[in-house]
Amino acid sequence: MRQNLIMRPVMLALGGAMLWAAPAMAQEQAPQAEADAVDPNAIIVTARRREESLQDTPVAITAVNAAMLENKAAVNIGDLTGGVPNLLITNQNSGAAAANLAIRGLTYADVEKSQEPTVGVVVDGVFIGTSTGQFFDFFDIEQIEVLRGPQGTLFGRNTIGGVINIRRTRPTGEFGGKVEVSYGKFNTLATRAVVNVPLSDDGSVGAKFFHFHNETDGWYRQSQTGDRRGFANNENFGGSVLIAPQGSDFDALFTLEKQIQKFDPVVSNLTNSSELFCGFIPAIECNRNNTTDLYTVFGQPNVSNYSAPAATLEMNYDLGGVKLTSVTGWRKSRENQTQDFDGSSTDLYYVRRLQRYEQWSQEVRAAGKFSDSFDYVVGLYYFSSKYQLTQYSRVFGFAPTVDPLIFDTNPQVVNGKTKSIAVFGDFNWAFADQWRLSFGGRFTRDKKALDNSFGGTEIGRGSDTFKKFTPKIGVDFRPNDDVMFYGSWSQGYRSGGFSPRAGTAASAGVAYQPEVVDSFEVGGKFDLFDRKVQFNVAAFYSSYKDLHQNNTLNCPSCATGNETITSNVGSAKIKGLEFDFTARPTSQLTITGSLGLLDSKFKGFIVGGISPVTGAVVPYDFSGNDLIYNPNMTASLGADYSVPTSFGEVIANLSYRYIGRYDQQISIGGLSGNLSTGPITVTGNDPRVRTDKQGLVDASLTTKFDIGGTEARLTVFGRNLANDRGPTHGFTVGGLWSFGTAREPRTYGATLGVKF
User: Fold this and answer.
1) Which residues are bridge partners to 184 per DSSP?
2) pLDDT digit string (tens) for 545-585?
């Protein structure tokens, strides 16, 4: 505690000191002889911590701005799935606003806060250290950038799959704002408001206030009563203050916000006759399918309460030759969640999870030029987090009215801490006409500690330090202003750690080691037909080493008879192709499309498992299983068409997204080989944790008009109009039971909004 009290003001002071001490670092920048022509279709991105045109950035990146989101009637980060090549985002209801993220087949689907995601979500420059809180609302968004491939050099930590970089709007310094209300199927009501107000006469100090509310009854039905299940009520509110004195090169943006969520983390029953729990539940609840049956549930009521305040301070000081930036982030959350994990009407496995999490981060970086042909970004990064989980379990309780806090006198308590420091640099050198070399790297040092106890008795404790330098190098060639070719090699690193679900001292005290990805990429970006068509292509190959996977092992002393540990399980090879385009054949019509292709396979994925014949631990070979969240194809095609009218404008949007089938858990679909002594070959993942092919059709029609000088719009929308039903998440639990969750079925509604 004392160390945290010291470090927090030090972090703030460091950011301020770096900014105000900057004049000694400043360099004279040569004036530009002639202003560059501005392309009205150009999208400016900050993928490399610099402001660059999307088509001039030698990175596989997709940018989505506010107008695109508004025209699509997009609701949250999950609406990006399928619309970006090789991107998957699904909601994980075992944690509040939790997301399972996968880019180019790299993912780690887990809600435990001691384990970081492989895809980083960065909001206003702050890396979110857990999957909880990543399922983000789209209102008040300026732009979203999806960077594919390892991005550890410049973005936070543990971003071996990629980064989703979210930038919200900044206070304008003028009075104005927007308000909207939406109502749709499943009694879904959303109200959102953003208001800007000036705090000074010259507009140099402004504030922005926002409040978002979203509630729904859910799309599940309780079999016994016919009532709706899966309700959610989400509140997100806060404010920002921007100080940007006129005539000054300094600005500071402070944001304070809070998210409050209450929801029903309902699960569907996927238990079959091969599992123990099937012998205790009614026959109608056993052997169900993982598509249409998912929408009927049998379990007991659950509720999750989540409260998460956060604060961000960003300061910029532009000295002409050098721009200094400091970003300080703080997030804290508390969760109290009950969940009937077995999903049956029989009280077999019901838990209450109490969690606390807090993270601090500080980044300081400098960006500038050594010369007209050599620019740089360098910086320092600090991250710390602490986490506590107390889980009360009611196992074979047959006592649905008894709170797990009373039933379980030996709760599991997990405490975890992380401290990370890093130094990084990224450089561009235009070493010849039309040629540029990009290179850089990041040195990261992570220290982690975790202890695990049951009923106040510690069963294991571990502490370890992990270090890694991850380089990146690339080259790009521009034969003319409309074409760019590039190639790169980058390395991604994800820290090691300790297993939060370990049930024995041996498992709790032994660290799994870091995983590393080497990614090779070549691509091209093309502006065609007088820049009316933008077409991008990328091919990549990733070598994934020492990857982390959860494994279920026999544990006689554990409440469920098994334990889940994380370990390094071999390697994987992933290769793929990506295409995306934007075409503007007329000023009224915009057509977009994307295609992502993946081919992935394990190598040397051998772990210990339980022999079904002798009960002894023997080698299990999972090398033939599919990697999770790895569809072989994702594709999208969409169109926006606008028509001017006497009263304003009408905009129609129609899109189609295709997502190939994918598995959600490394599991056992079948066994072959020597079942007594091993090795035993696993013949694929359990089909119950497999998502079928998806074809999602979305449409919206928006009318814009004036009301007394105020811009108003009315949008009628529909999502998943083909009513493609199936799972988003499936899980099998060591031969005991299985459960899953369902994706949103067909829904529709209307939104009325005003801007002033």
Assistant:
1) 188, 749
2) 998 887 766 676 666 666 778 888 889 999 999 999 999 99
Which domains are present in the chain? 44-755 (2.40.170.20)
Phi, psi dihedrals of residue 9, rounded to the nearest 5°: -65, -30
Token digits for 23? 């004049």
The vertex-515 CA angle with 514 and 519, nearest 5°, equals 140
The mean per-residue pLDDT over the stretch 443-450 comes to: 95
Closest of 424, 505, 501, 508 to residue 464, by C-alpha: 508
d(CA 265, CA 122): 26
SS (H, E, C) 134-163: CCCECCCEEEEEEEECCCCCCCCCCCCCEE
Q: pLDDT averaged over the chain?
A: 88
For tokens 């309902």, the residue is 266
* Nearest CA among 737, 620, 746 for reference residue 688: 737
Are the C-beta atoms of 357 and 325 separated by less than 8 Å?
no
What is the pTM for the complete model shown? 0.89
CB 212 within 8 A of CB 181: no
Secondary structure element (H or E) that encloses residue 9, with its range: helix 2-20
d(CA 718, CA 696) in angstroms, rounded, equals 11
Q: Which of 239, 243, 250 is nearest to 325 (CA)?
A: 250
Q: Which amino acid is at 205?
A: V
Half-sphere exposure at residue 6, Cβ-oriented, CA atoms within 13 angstroms: 3
Confidence of residue 37 (pLDDT cuts 50, 70, 90): very low
Tokens 């600090």 identify what position? 382
Residues 6+ apart with CB under 8 A from 144: 63, 64, 65, 69, 77, 80, 164, 165, 166, 167
Residue 613 tokens read as 């014949």
- Quickly tell me which residue has 């402004």 as its tokens: 206
Q: Which runs of E-coded beta strand occur in 632-693?
A: 633-644, 648-659, 662-663, 671-673, 680-682, 690-691
Q: Are 349 and 393 in contact (CB under 8 A)?
A: yes
Single out the residue of 347, 431, 332 nearest to residue 132, CA to CA: 332
Q: Is the pLDDT of residue 635 over 50?
A: yes
What token pair was written down for 261?
Answer: 């969520």
Torsion of CA 512, 517, 518, 520, to 10 degrees: 170
pLDDT per residue as tens digits for the range 368-408: 999 999 999 999 999 999 999 999 999 999 999 999 999 99
Query: Both tokens of residue 542?
Result: 């990733």
Question: 684 — alpha (psi -120 to 50), left (phi > 0) or beta?
Answer: left
- Rounded to 5 degrees, φ, ψ at 108 are -150, 105
Give me the half-sphere count of Cα atoms (radius 13 Å) on the Cβ side of residue 50. Answer: 21
Question: Side chain identity at 299, as an amino acid letter?
Answer: G
Which residues lie below 8 Å from residue 99, measured CB to CB, with a gap of 6+? 77, 78, 89, 90, 91, 92, 117, 121, 131, 134, 135
Position of tokens 């732009």?
A: 143
SS3 content of the chain, % helix, strand, coil (to 5): 10, 55, 35
CA nearest 639: which of 578, 712, 583?
Answer: 583
